[in-house]
Amino acid sequence: MSIRYVKCQDINEIGKQVGELFISQVKNNPYSSFILATGSSPITTYQTIVKDYQINHTDWSKAITFNLDEYIGMSKKYFNQSYRYFMDKNLFNHINIDKTHTYFPNQELVGDNYQKLIRQCPQIELAILGVGNNGHIAFNEPGTPIDSQTHIVNLTISSRQANARFFNDDINNVPKQAVTMGLKEILQAKKIILIATGKVKKEAIQHLQHAKYFDPNWPITALTHHSNVIVYTDNLD
To answer: Which of 18, 29, 156, 173 is deepest in the core (most CB within 10 A)?
Structure first.
């Protein structure tokens, strides 16, 4: 286990530091593959990447991305809350990435089918993760086994409540299911970056800090089984 903790002043400083890791990777290897997250945690990272592209025109045309998850049963009314829409809006529409090389899990890619796409790449160089209040990473909720592959999940009330702010603050508008990359697939990345900010994430980070092995009640502890993890936090207060 090798987990390094980096405390930053705020999410903007985190975004600059993590964004530079992505930019450096794609400059060193234009054919790099990445695992990407959605939600509030990675937004400033994507802003850093977009700003660099506007100024320096870093080439993303050969890069490949695999997103962690996507909702199932999304109402057309809330299509703009799909994770594909999120990625287009916050990153893909603003750099020269080939969108045919940007992959998202769906109901046809459960089991090892998403994994087959990933295997076409020599190595996932870098993964970026957020973490839920209950310790979930991607939509791997408490109870998910560490050898899980891409699967459909029934979202917990706490996860749906956390996302209700994107659905007119009404949990009834939040989809009840999603499809998510499994923990086994996430752990394949050569380097994993996890971002956690605010006091609501403090308990999850404390469980990771104190964990000596994987605890399925706190999926974040799967990171104890990886050799190269960097956790970026603010003061978590």
So the answer is: 18
**Do residues 214 and 172 make contact, with C-beta atoms less than 8 angstroms apart?**
no
Q: Which of 52, 67, 69, 215 is catalytic?
A: 69
For residue 196, CA distances in Å to 162, 203, 215, 234 come to: 14, 11, 19, 7
Whether 136 is a known active-site residue: answer yes
Q: Active-site residue among 125, 141, 185, 234?
A: 141
Question: pLDDT (tens digit, 9 = 90+) per residue, 35-50?
Answer: 999 999 999 999 999 9
**What are the phi and psi torsion angles at 136 (to 5°)?**
-75, 145
What's the pTM? Answer: 0.94
User: Choosing from 52, 70, 125, 134, which is the catalytic residue?
Assistant: 134
Cβ 208 vs Cβ 220: under 8 Å: yes
Tens of pLDDT along 94-144? 999 999 999 999 999 998 899 999 988 889 999 999 999 899 999 999 999
